[in-house]
Amino acid sequence: MRVGTDYYLIASSFNQTPGIPVLHSYDLVNWRILTHAVSRLPAPIYDLPQPGKGVWAPSIRYHAGEFWICWGDPDLGIFMVKASSAAGPWGTPVLVKAASGWIDPCPFWDGDGQAYLIHAWAKSRVGFNSILTLHRMSADGRQILDEGVTIFDGHADHPTIEGPKMYKRDGTYYIFAPAGGVRNGWQTVLRSKNIYGPYADRVVLEQGTTNVNGPHQGAWVTTAAGEDWFIHFQDKDAYGRIVHLQPLQWSGGWPMIGIDRDSNGVGEPVANFRYPKTDQSYSKIMPQTTDDFEAPVLQPQWQWRANGQTSWYALDARPGHLRLYCPTPPQNF
Questions:
Q1: pLDDT tens, residue by residue, 129-156
Q2: What is the helix (H) or strand (E) element at residue 126, kind and residue range?
Q3: For residue 68, which phi and psi values (nearest 5 degrees)?
Q4: How far apart are CA 333 and CA 308, in angstroms?
Q5: Is residue 81 part of a domain?
Q6: What share of the chain is helix, strand, coil (3-state, %, to 5)?
Q7: What angle do CA 17, 19, 23 make, to 5 degrees?
Q8: Where are the beta strands (DSSP E) in 93-196?
Q9: In the chain, which residues have pLDDT < 70?
Q10: CATH number of the domain that residue 265 is part of
Q11: Greatest distance between any 2 Cα atoms in the chain
């Protein structure tokens, strides 16, 4: 998302802490880790490693002068945390809704002040998925106000639809949502004049003839220069989920992401493209990857596989070095 000429990117962090890395960029290409939005996961179970659990598909928004992040824990429910600056400090996470299987939430504040939350479902927890549900939410983002309405069923044409991001453009509501699964899926966009639907649907990005499998799940961003771009991930085996930047153009009220090489009306990922237009040139930078351990704290690229403990390590035992201690695991580990 963009605020002024600054761009912010967050990502799933699952059971790792500190959680929800917040990255910053001036041009959508060069990124640095700014901070983390969550220092500790808000449940005792995360004092021990819980692979695959924790923070799933968070969303970041800027509203009423504050940064808001919502995420779904498939076993605990929907959480919200906010800050006046993306660099922090971030507040204490709030449990918005205790639930099982609610995932991939995105908050949305409409022009009349009414707040909403849209989310998907985890089949591994509730026995079904491919459904998007919309709820009214309190304006302060702290509670859900109704039982929710199913606004899209993807079983027929968009199985495993999830990760919804809601926007409004020229009086029309848009939901950008990945479908088809992480490995081989596509990017779907839904649109409607009514926030509750019915929603028309269209595939706007697919692998096509490229080597970018499953191009989907990300964010639409309009730059300060008025250009539109889409950031998404690709699941690439041992490399994890790597990030791509695609051009986006609007035609007939629908977005086209990437380049339509075969003229079938669906975009495909680009391998090379020009930089987004900016007010000046920015130096090439990358997320932090090295640490000389001279600082009094660990640098932001480091994470633990559970809620970290200060007794696990030391930076002052030998200056310029990280010393790790092996704790005695609990009997039930």
A1: 999 999 999 999 999 999 999 999 999 9
A2: helix 123-126
A3: -125, 135
A4: 16
A5: yes
A6: 5, 45, 55
A7: 130
A8: 94-98, 102-109, 115-121, 131-137, 149-153, 165-169, 172-179, 186-192
A9: 330-333
A10: 2.115.10.20
A11: 63
